[in-house]
Amino acid sequence: MNAVLRIFVWLLALSVVALPVVAVLNGWVGAERWPLAKLRVHGEFKRVPAEQLQQVVLPYAKSGFFAVKLQDAQDAIETLPWVESAQVRKQWPDVLEITLVEHKPFARWGNDRLLSEQGKLFATPKKLQDLELPDLDGPDSQTEEVVALYNDARALFAPAGVDVKRVTMDARGSWSLVLSNGTEVVVGRDDARSRLQRFVRVLPQLANQAAPIERADLRYTNGFTLSWGTPAPAAPAAPAETANVAHRTQERT
After folding, report:
1. Selection from 157, 58, 63, 166 nearest residue 110 by Cα
2. In the chain, how many domains are there?
3. Please, what is the end-to-end C-alpha distance for the chain in angstroms?
4. Fewer CB atoms inside 10 Å of the end CB: C or N, the chain?
5. Residue 33: its pLDDT value, please?
6. Is residue 119 in a domain?
7. What's the confidence (pLDDT) of residue 181?
8. Smallest Cα–Cα separation from 125: which of 73, 82, 182, 76?
9. Which pLDDT does position 129 carry in this prediction?
10. Is residue 160 included in any domain, yes or no?
11. Looking at residue 24, what is its pLDDT?
């Protein structure tokens, strides 16, 4: 037997051994012999419907234990609206395991997205369109910086009894806030935290003004400017007859 024939025989023998293995690993044969019959899900999730999860995973599970493409299944699960992350594993002989982490909303981001507690952006589900959340906005790459200023600003204004409802960073890096009392605070790009501290220090002196602060512009080196709203109307005086009745009652007492 010459060398060429021996090589041909070895290749043929190798093909006979390898082809069934390749066929099983690619799901060409054997999927019905080693099916993935059980789906096991770990993690606390409340908003991802079990039926939706099963529907997404089923096409991959049909390939069988050896041929299932775990990464493809994981990528498909992570496209679901409420899924923040997923891990997919298989366990012999017939179990497909999924570890699931849901998005937990922290704030609104822009007009149509939410920011999760883990700092990930996702589309706003219809059921959460009216959920009370702080409004944050800025470049998508600056989510951490926006959240950090929001937390710092809340801590600064809390002693004054004021909360922060909105924090925005524009494309140039300029900051603005909206407080729970309706005041718009324009901070600017530089020294945002020190400017807010300077403004907070004088808030107690401004609290007794008849008119509310409509806008505060902090974009000055050593101070800021204020715009005042319309003073609240005074409470109407009690009618004379009512006042007399109250007076007589006091005398009888």
Report:
1. 166
2. 2
3. 130
4. C
5. 61
6. no
7. 92
8. 82
9. 63
10. yes
11. 40
